[in-house]
Design goal:
The protein is mainly α and 586 residues long. It is built from 25 helices and 3 strands.
């Protein structure tokens, strides 16, 4: 080599700092950029989380926008692959893995066309007004943003109709038996006076800080937007639904009827359970669990002093007046009292509790006849809205007292509220993990939380204990009937009969539940599969640690990482066990 060139290279090496790869920094930058992208392209979710920057928008669900998002996700995975996983810390490797799983799953979901079925009888654009219940309305701009959303609703509706038409073209449509509930929901949006429209609700009781002049102006603008945009959009939707969509819906039920239906349902089973279990394997797990739980039910029936058969005990629980409230308000009051009873017991099993509280409210009357017994709405990420446990008070004569404790444990604490609120309070986690939603983890935890009622001393009579078993049976039955209908060609009547034979739920609940599984294939599989995994991990920890097992520490390990696929949860618990429960969380 030329001596002068060697000297120049040496000088350059001394004076020019070497470029050092910063894989951790690149990963964080990718997470931050993608979270910002997600909020901007999912403005209604951003609003629910308390990010108000896009409060004047609906999401762009046009076919072109969805295709762009699919291409974007492919590009993000390319960027992720350029980051050296082996150069990351253990915590960042878990972040990397979860991020990759999330985007790979989204791409696979797009391939199977889930985006072309944007609604069911439990919710969709026909219930879009419920977004208003989750938002803050404190300033003039809050109301102006809502009115801007109302003015833009027609575009959102037309994009949704285009999606559904594409679904029709591809043969990806809902069954008639569940879609026959939609016309009544649409009718509730077609009231004659704009102030009666559900979208007007945020304007009914404006914040005290809004002056009279602004109050009058905003009210007039909202009425104009409803009359000029929202109502005409629903008129178009009603016509489309009745004339085009409903006639094109499936005459029978089952995902197997869709093009490539068998592969689609297998994907949905994997996606919702975050496992590699096949529909056949899940079906067989369900059958075994049904037999096991029936045996437990027989024991509790004897403890209750009932001399008849188990089916006769079911009928007794379904119809005896002592188990039912007289009216909706009494039912809601008793649920609120049940929640207050649970709260002070949590310290027995949990070291870390969320700071944000939760409330107990009735399910909106518009959707109550068509939805489940209860559900949870998460808190806003900025702490501006507490979590909400929604109780279905429709037809209180079908809502037994013996299910109150287990349902409250599942939906509030130590179930969904405790788990989701804690995840959002984990400031060290990337935001996509704070708000991750893996159904098998979240609903598996909710079902596991029901079983904690016994350790907390809350199942203090045979009927409440039977309520817990009834709910566990309900989730075991789901494994059988969901796979039965979508993989093994069961009809709706067979699914309803199997449910009725094995769980003392009311006829209304049974029919609503089966219809839910029909229109949401695979989702119901997550509960029992997730619960079984968490129980398996707890049993493993108890066996390995013996007297050193601390249930509070175990719960910290399971909860402090937020929602994650079951395989990664198992990996997390196993890494903790390597430290012999020494208080170090992976």
């Amino acid at each position: 080599m030329n001596p002068r060139l060697s000297i120049l290279l040496l000088i350059c090496a001394l004076l020019c700092p070497l470029a050092v790869a910063d894989d951790a920094g690149d990963l964080k930058a990718l997470f931050d950029a993608e979270w910002e992208h997600t909020m901007e392209t999912s403005p209604t979710w951003a609003s629910e989380l308390g990010d108000r920057r896009w409060n004047d928008r609906w999401p762009d669900v046009s076919l072109a926008a969805l295709e762009r998002e699919n291409a974007h996700q492919q590009q993000v995975l390319t960027q992720l692959a350029a980051i050296r996983r082996e150069a990351l810390s253990p915590a960042d490797r878990l972040n990397y893995d979860m991020f990759r799983v999330q985007y790979e799953t989204e791409l696979e979901s797009y391939h199977f066309g889930r985006q072309y079925i944007p609604l069911d009888q439990r919710g969709g654009i026909q219930t879009a007004d419920e977004l208003g219940d989750a938002l803050r309305f404190e300033t003039v701009k809050d109301y102006e943003d809502w009115i801007a959303r109302l003015r833009g609703f027609g575009v959102y509706m037309d994009q949704t109709i285009a999606l559904m038409r594409e679904g029709m073209r591809r043969g990806l449509v809902q069954p008639k038996v569940t879609m026959q509930r939609l016309p009544g929901q649409i009718d509730k949006q077609l009231v004659p006076a704009p102030e009666q429209n559900p979208f007007f609700k945020p304007l009914e009781h404006m914040a005290a800080s809004i002056g009279d002049e602004d109050r009058a102006r905003l009210t007039a603008s909202a009425k104009e937007a409803i009359t000029g945009s929202v109502r005409p959009a629903f008129v178009r939707f009603q016509r489309f639904f009745l004339v085009e969509y409903f006639p094109a819906c499936l005459d029978g039920i089952g995902a197997w009827r869709w093009p490539d239906g068998e592969a689609t349902y297998s994907f949905l089973a994997r996606m919702f359970t975050t496992t590699t279990l096949t529909p056949k394997e899940i079906h067989e797990i369900g059958l075994r669990e049904v037999v096991r739980i029936r045996g437990e039910m027989e024991k509790v029936k004897v403890q209750a002093g009932f001399a008849g058969t188990l089916p006769e005990f079911f009928e007794f629980l379904r119809h005896d007046p002592r188990f039912y409230c007289a009216n909706e308000q009494q039912l809601l009051s008793e649920y609120r009292a049940t929640a207050k009873r649970i709260d002070p017991t949590l310290v027995k099993l949990f070291r870390t509790l969320p700071r944000i509280p939760y409330g107990v409210e009735p399910v909106p009357a518009r959707t109550a006849p068509d939805t489940s017994a209860a559900y949870y709405r998460p808190l806003a990420a900025d702490g501006s809205r507490a979590g909400t446990f929604f109780v279905n008070t429709y037809q209180p004569g079908t809502r037994p007292r013996w299910e109150m404790m287990t349902l409250t444990l599942h939906e509030s604490v130590p179930g969904h509220h405790l788990q989701i609120a804690l995840a959002q309070e984990q400031g060290a986690l990337p935001r996509f993990r704070q708000h991750a939603h893996y159904t098998a983890y979240i609903e598996g935890w909710g079902l596991y939380a029901e079983s904690l009622g016994e350790e907390l001393g809350l199942y203090d009579d045979p009927y409440s204990k039977f309520g817990e078993l009834t709910f566990e049976m309900w989730r075991a039955v789901r494994l059988v009937v969901d796979t039965g209908m979508h993989a093994f060609h069961w009809d709706r009547d067979r699914a309803i009969a199997y449910f009725r034979e094995n769980a003392p739920r009311s006829e209304l609940d049974i029919v609503n539940e089966v219809d839910r599984y029909i229109s949401w294939p695979g989702q119901a599989l997550a509960y029992k599969i997730g619960q079984l995994k968490i129980k398996e991990l707890r049993a493993r920890a108890q066996q390995q640690l013996g007297a050193g097992f601390d249930v509070k520490e175990f719960h910290d390990v399971v909860l402090s990482g937020g929602s994650m696929p079951l395989s990664l949860l198992e990996q997390r618990v196993d890494e903790w066990l390597k430290t012999a429960g020494g208080g170090k969380h992976p």
